[in-house]
């Protein structure tokens, strides 16, 4: 009995440690994006700033897709806590689909920006479009880490490593995806209102 209690306490300490590490990572990412958006605000006073720049329509749809990711990941976590493996599978795969859809829509948005005559570099570029590219590409890099983590979670789920007593991997994945979701919504609203 005492051995079981020691093992449970060790498991709890490990979970807290992983969550704390993830939290510190998210705080540092928030600070980085805070710096980027601050530079964006300062740069708006430049004479070459585009006042009539519009966000591409694909970014609106991608925002819905990433919000869907948070919802499906939340539902996956709830399903595994009830040991409902079938629902967990559906929700994890739905999260992957929506996450990949978000990435595709970001690139569709880039294409829409280029089609409108705004480029990342070169004579057709502007400080406005360059900032937009930088902010969204940096977010996509962080999202790539989320997709890799999600693939590992799905693999572990199929290996039956998660159940109602062992949900740490799914919890950490959900925390990170919720963070990515909130971060994109912040960036989208920032770019929409402060362009």
Low-confidence stretches: none
Span of the ends, CA to CA: 62 Å
Mean pLDDT: 88
- Stated plainly, the CATH topology is called Four Helix Bundle (Hemerythrin (Met), subunit A)
Number of helices: 5
CATH superfamily: Cytochrome c oxidase, subunit III, four-helix bundle
Specify the CATH architecture: Up-down Bundle
Assembly category: single chain
Number of domains: 1
Please identify the structural class as seen in this structure.
mainly alpha
The major pleated sheet works out as:
none
**Fraction in beta strands:** under 5%
SSE string: HHHHH
Write down the Rg: 20 Å
Provide an overview of this structure:
- The structure is a single chain.
- Helix 2 (57-81) runs antiparallel to helix 3 (85-115).
- It contains 5 helices and no strands.
- The chain is mostly helical.
- The protein starts with a helix and ends with a helix.
- The protein has a single domain, classed as Cytochrome c oxidase, subunit III, four-helix bundle (Four Helix Bundle (Hemerythrin (Met), subunit A)).
- It has helices spanning 2-43, 57-81, 85-115, 127-158, 168-193.
Topology:
Layout lengths: L1 H42 L13 H25 L3 H31 L11 H32 L9 H26 L2
Helix pairs in contact: 1-4, 1-5, 2-3, 2-5, 3-4, 4-5
Properties at a glance:
5 helices, mainly alpha, 80% helix, Four Helix Bundle (Hemerythrin (Met), subunit A)
Summarize this, please?
With 195 residues, this protein is mainly α. It is built from 5 helices and no strands.
């Amino acid at each position: 009995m005492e051995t079981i209690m020691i093992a449970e306490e060790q498991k709890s300490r490990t979970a807290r440690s992983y969550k704390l590490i993830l939290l510190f990572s998210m705080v540092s990412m928030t600070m980085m994006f805070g710096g980027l958006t601050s530079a964006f605000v300062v740069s708006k006073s430049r004479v070459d700033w585009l006042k009539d720049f519009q966000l591409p329509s694909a970014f609106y749809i991608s925002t819905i897709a990433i919000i869907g990711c948070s919802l499906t990941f939340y539902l996956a976590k709830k399903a595994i806590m009830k040991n409902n493996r079938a629902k967990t599978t559906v929700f994890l795969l739905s999260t992957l689909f929506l996450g990949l859809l978000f990435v595709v829509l970001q690139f569709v948005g880039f294409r829409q920006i280029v089609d409108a005559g705004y480029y990342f570099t070169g004579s057709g570029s502007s400080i406005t479009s360059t900032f937009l590219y930088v902010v969204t590409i940096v977010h996509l890099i962080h999202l790539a880490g989320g997709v890799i983590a999600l693939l590992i979670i799905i693999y572990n789920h199929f290996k039956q490593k998660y159940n109602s007593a062992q949900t740490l991997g799914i919890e950490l994945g959900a925390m990170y995806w919720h963070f990515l979701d909130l971060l994109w919504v912040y960036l989208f609203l920032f770019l929409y209102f402060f362009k």
